[in-house]
Specification:
Blueprint: H1 12-18, H2 24-31, E1 39-43, H3 49-54, E2 60-65, H4 68-71, E3 80-84, E4 97-103, H5 111-121, E5 122-133, H6 140-153, H7 163-166, E6 177-179, E7 186-191, H8 193-201, H9 204-212, H10 218-226, E8 236-249
Parallel strand pairs: 1-2, 1-4, 2-3, 4-5
Antiparallel strand pairs: 5-8, 6-8, 7-8
């Protein structure tokens, strides 16, 4: 089995504070395909954002992550049980889950091993739903700068697996009977420049850049570049496109 990747423990607190939340319409579409709601598994839960959103729908939510630092940021809820665990091998019993979810984390997994574990722990006709979000969009003038920062300034510092997010998981093998999503989902937020900077600082590529170039701050230089387009306290509407892959596990 390939080693798991943990690039987010160091910035676990900022990850929770500045990362956007998923819309309720996304969860509602996924739940609409689930036959029963006894138990679900949120794999790669991070700070528990998805687990908390799923808790009202299920009797029990099992939430796992390889980062204890991320789990330390997760909210306490009577329906949620958290555990440090990899995605590819768990202690869950066979045929346990009505729904398995992975949000913005699948690209870090060993795909073959994860597919085998999903088949083992899912109930027959259980649902696997995986999703992520692409690069944020604000306005054409700002988007041009964001694209350049993303691909050219810190592009070389992204882990190679980031390419799977850029291609909306198109090349990740998933062993299920596909359910085609009929909806287009987006994360809609309204941020000031300070929050936007906090979000950029949570990127693993930014952390890697700083480690390789001590004393240099790519985010500070980027913010200076876009300063004429974004005043400090100005609120801007921001949209993140969501991509969703889901299907039934047939046994």
């Amino acid at each position: 089995m390939k080693a798991s990747f943990d690039l987010f423990s160091e910035q676990a607190e900022s990850y929770k504070k500045f990362r956007p939340s998923y819309p309720k319409e996304l969860y509602q579409e996924i739940i609409g395909h689930v036959n029963q709601t006894a138990q679900c598994w949120d794999c790669g839960t991070g700070n528990g954002q998805v687990a908390l959103a799923l808790a009202p729908y299920f009797d029990k939510v099992m939430a796992t992550d390889i980062s204890s630092s991320q789990l330390a940021q997760a909210p306490v809820h009577e329906a949620i049980s958290y555990a440090v665990s990899g995605a590819e091998h768990t202690s869950f019993a066979d045929n346990s889950f009505d729904l398995i979810t992975v949000a913005q984390a699948l690209h870090w997994f060993d795909f073959d091993a994860f597919n085998r574990e999903v088949f083992r722990v899912s109930k027959n006709n259980g649902v696997l739903a995986v999703w992520g979000y692409g690069l944020l969009r604000i306005a054409p003038a700002l988007d041009e700068h964001i694209d350049s920062f993303y691909s050219q300034v810190i592009g070389p510092y992204w882990n190679a697996r980031r390419k799977h997010v850029d291609t909306a998981y198109a090349h990740i093998p998933l062993d299920f009977q596909q359910i085609v999503s009929k909806e287009s989902h987006f994360i809609q937020v309204r941020w000031n420049l300070k929050h936007f900077v906090g979000y950029l600082n949570s990127w693993s590529s930014v952390q890697t850049y700083r480690k390789k170039h001590p004393g240099k701050d790519p985010v500070k230089a980027f913010v200076s570049q876009i300063a004429p387009l974004w005043k400090i306290e100005e609120q801007k509407d921001i949209r993140f496109p969501i991509f969703l892959k889901m299907g039934k596990i047939k046994k």
